[in-house]
Design a protein that fits this description.
The chain is mainly α. Among the domains are: 26-224 and 361-383, no CATH class; 230-280, no CATH class. The chain has helices at 5-12, 17-20, 29-46, 49-78, 86-108, 113-118, 121-125, 131-163, 168-195, 199-228, 241-249, 257-266, 287-291, 294-302, 306-309, 315-325, 350-353, 361-383, and strands spanning 230-239, 271-280, 336-337. Strands 2-1-3 form a three-stranded mixed beta sheet. Helix 14 (294-302) packs across helix 16 (315-325). The chain is elongated and about 100 Å long. The two termini are 47 Å apart.
Length: 397
């Protein structure tokens, strides 16, 4: 039997997967995400840059820990006080956060744009791995890389915790807060890397975004409060200068406290009326701007407010107390008088001052998640294939 040329060519051609019974299935979302993350991590491990950077980071945080411990111990011995290393813990955690804000954009904001510039991104895009798997896989790899630096710093964080008057629960919260912030920073970088073709421009933009959250929120809050501040004149009655001079004169000599108190009670009350200009700042309308600051988020999550009562407040409690107290509406200035009441040295407790306020960390964290979600969505639209339109000068493969 004679075969035609078409039959001969068909007999030599390989069978398709459908005709041979074997079908190629696209990997699921999680499997594709894991494959991309593993590939990205292997590429990062081939470079010695991360190893050198980790060694330098270990040396720097070690030097900072030793220096802070020396300063605190020297201060305690100078003022003849018991050694309190609690400020050391908050300082080290904030220093790790500072390093995270510097490293996270560098290890994430060039992950996609550099491959697009080198022409290797198209090789991954033509596979059966979904666009979300590619995008989130690279974000996961960048997050794991950032967590590696957190692991490098963990011995000094644990050491500062061991020397401080706190418990392991606060350590877990601090590590969780740092991990979340590093994860969000890397998500910012990967989203911008997918949206922007230039690797250098995407890294610079990521740094600007982190700086906007860290420093820009402080500037924006100060400007907003400054614009909204109003000034008003208030009349008030207070003790006269002659009264205070007579009141203070009772403390001279070698009299005991009972005699001094009796003398001060005999001083005749003399009051005067004065007028002063006072400012009213609407911090209750703009405090949410500071809630997006990563240092405020970490401070409010990890803070232990009882340290303020003892007068040895750490950075966490100071930041948390400052932002939460801004939630209260400033009282409208009105005429008032502190006469003829005796001077009072009493102060309200921290709980009383913060009554009616809410934690700010979950609000700031939610706003940061919205920013990260928006950037990742923009990166997905830019990365998805087939592309409806390519920017001018883009290379396809």
């Amino acid at each position: 039997m004679t075969m035609s040329p078409a039959d001969t060519a068909a007999s030599r051609s390989p069978q398709s997967p459908e005709s041979s019974g074997s079908r190629v299935h696209a990997p699921g979302f999680w499997r594709g995400l894991g494959a991309i993350a593993a590939l990205e991590l292997r590429q990062r491990l081939r470079s010695r840059t991360l190893l050198v950077l980790a060694i330098v980071w270990f040396a720097i945080i070690g030097a900072v820990t030793v220096s802070m411990w020396f300063v605190l111990s020297l201060s305690s011995s100078t003022y003849d006080e018991s050694f309190d290393a609690y400020p050391l813990f908050s300082t080290i955690v904030y220093f790790v956060l500072l390093f995270g804000t510097l490293v996270a954009p560098a290890i994430s904001a060039g992950s996609i744009s550099s491959e697009r510039a080198n022409g290797t991104l198209a090789t991954t895009q033509v596979t059966l791995v979904s666009t979300w798997s590619i995008l989130l896989g690279k974000a996961l790899a960048a997050w794991v890389t950032g967590l590696a630096f957190l692991v490098v710093a963990s011995p000094f964080v644990i050491l500062s915790l061991a020397l401080a008057r706190t418990g392991p629960l606060q350590l877990l919260v601090a590590v969780l807060a740092l991990a979340l912030q590093i994860g969000l920073f890397t998500a910012f970088g990967v989203g911008l890397s997918a949206m922007i073709s230039s690797s250098l421009f995407s890294i610079v933009t990521a740094y600007l975004l982190v700086a906007l959250l860290s420093v820009g929120t402080l500037i924006a809050f100060a400007l907003a409060v400054g614009v909204g501040t109003r000034y008003t004149e208030v009349e008030y009655r207070t003790f006269s200068q002659q009264y205070w001079e007579a009141y203070s004169a009772c403390e001279t000599g070698d009299q005991d406290s009972a005699a001094i108190s009796a003398c001060q009670e005999r001083v005749p009350v003399e009051c005067i009326t004065e007028t002063q200009t006072t400012s009213v700042s609407p911090t209750d309308r703009f405090w949410w701007i500071l809630a997006m600051n990563p240092y405020v988020i970490v401070g409010d999550m990890v803070s232990v407010r009882h340290t303020i009562d003892s007068g040895n407040g750490d950075l966490f409690s100071a930041v948390s107390f400052g932002v939460r107290s801004m939630q209260k509406s400033p009282s409208t200035p009105a005429d008032y008088s502190d006469c003829p009441a005796q001077p009072s040295d009493g102060f309200s407790s921290v709980e009383e001052q913060l009554e009616g306020t809410i934690p700010v960390w979950w609000i700031g964290l939610g706003l940061q998640v919205l920013i990260a979600a928006g950037l990742l969505w923009g990166g997905y639209r830019r990365l998805d294939t087939p592309a409806a339109r390519l920017p001018k000068g883009s290379r396809v493969a």
